[in-house]
């Protein structure tokens, strides 16, 4: 009888989730730590808001273009080894990034950091599918996504208060130190892989499989969800601090960073939706989560800070619920090339972050927060209409 994976509740299962929590914190704390301090970066390095947002887009672009090459590397040397190399490389770059004296140099380092971080998201999902029992894979994937929200939250909550009190460079450096600690946790607790079998795939075979997957309508819909929803989500968070430091709020950046606690709604929703996916079906959860995201986005138009906070919580919970469904479905729906399918989802996911994270700055500069809300809502509506066209289940392996 072949390897069926660790079952939920076993010691190895718990160690895998703790290890991926460490990887998620190391990855997403570094990836998005500049988001809460963009006004300070813009002021210090004398760039406008849309250009400052490139410090986020540069990293997500590097990540997007590297996920497929990392899948090829991981097929050859193993998922755990690939993730270890990625985490160490990214953390070293993260420790260097805050001390870049020029904005263009900072962007170059951020691109390389993103390339290194590309070895985590797609590889982690494939690693879960190999090491966790199939009946518990959706729950494990939801738990992993919940861990990534903790990483994103930690990066913002650490960087912004330190930056506000001292200097943005010290805030970003503190996040890199946290990433180094989280990387050490990953090294220590990850159990020996049992489900991995080396696949010495060539670049040509990976590209051929990727082309085949990109011609599969049901998968393209899911990749599109990542592109559109992540683009809108990052745009909202990129320019939130610019809005809150202006009228009618006038909130200091250190205090505004507390609003990133809304990320905890994503921690809860991704875990909850992951557990429901096998019972209620993925499509209703995807559409419902997207509708919640739209409702939250519209609430942020209010001039009341309390309503804006509620809207942010709702927006975040809806987005991470949708992401949890779409990312897990993209891997499960692929009958062949699951590793490449997970990587393609992440490619489009972070491409959306890069493209719309920047375009949101143009909307902000010309139309203010209302322009950002229109863009985010439009992207989510387009994603929902597109998702409504996909069948609930593929012929094989749709449910985890």
TrEMBL record:
- The keyword Transmembrane helix is annotated on this UniProt entry: yes
UniProt keyword terms in alphabetical order: Cell membrane, Membrane, Transmembrane, Transmembrane helix, Transport
**Transmembrane stretches, by residue range?**
12-32, 52-73, 85-105, 111-129, 141-162, 168-189, 218-240, 246-265, 285-302, 308-332, 344-363, 369-389
Question: Member of which family?
Answer: Belongs to the major facilitator superfamily.
Q: Which residues form the Major facilitator superfamily (MFS) profile domain?
A: 15-395
InterPro entries documented for this protein: MFS, MFS_dom, MFS_trans_sf
Database matches in Gene3D superfamilies: MFS general substrate transporter like domains
Membrane topology type: Multi-pass membrane protein
Signal peptide stretch: none
Organism the protein comes from: Leucobacter tardus
Q: Name one Pfam family in it.
A: MFS_1
Is-annotated flag, keyword Protein biosynthesis?
A: no
Q: Which PROSITE patterns match?
A: MFS
Recorded superkingdom: Bacteria
Q: Where in the cell is it found?
A: Cell membrane
Descriptive protein name = MFS transporter
Q: Name one GO molecular function term.
A: transmembrane transporter activity
Family matches, as PANTHER family: BLL2771 PROTEIN (PTHR43271), INNER MEMBRANE TRANSPORT PROTEIN YNFM (PTHR43271:SF1)
How is this protein annotated for GO cellular component? plasma membrane
